[in-house]
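tokens incoming
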């Protein structure tokens, strides 16, 4: 009886520990969803805002989604756009990928980490590792 359980447990363990490779990331990825946006829309501030304020917030959300693009480049680099002080800027980072699927983004001024939750040929799901609660997952779709 125990001999039939062991292969099943081993298979379940192997399926849980996925190790992604940097080569799978190479290409351009567009942000299409961010859990924090859902939290914002459910917040009392958003719910109680007048229609003009909500339209403004929705415009900013859409602008943020459209302008958040990650381009992973062969080697260990990432070119990405970010929205800083109401401007879209182009940035670069060095990328490290650990065996436990943790991406480390290193710029001249900071280092951030995110766990790869899912990755296939069309979708990338990242979960930032942060002391800030509730930031949630980022979902990207492959552009190129």
């Amino acid at each position: 009886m125990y001999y039939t359980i062991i292969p099943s447990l081993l298979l379940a363990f192997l399926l849980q520990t996925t190790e992604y490779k940097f080569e799978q990331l190479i290409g351009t990825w567009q942000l299409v969803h961010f859990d924090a946006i859902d939290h914002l829309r459910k917040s009392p501030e958003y719910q109680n805002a007048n229609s003009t304020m909500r339209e403004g917030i929705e415009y900013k959300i859409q602008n943020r989604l459209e302008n958040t693009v990650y381009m992973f480049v062969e080697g260990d680099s990432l070119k990405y756009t970010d929205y800083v002080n109401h401007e879209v800027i182009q940035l670069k980072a060095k990328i490290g990928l650990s065996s436990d699927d943790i991406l480390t983004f290193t710029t001249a001024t900071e280092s951030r980490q995110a766990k790869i939750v899912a990755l296939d040929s069309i979708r990338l799901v990242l979960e930032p590792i942060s002391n800030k609660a509730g930031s949630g997952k980022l979902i990207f779709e492959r552009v190129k």
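note: Confidence is low (pLDDT under 50) at residues 7-16.
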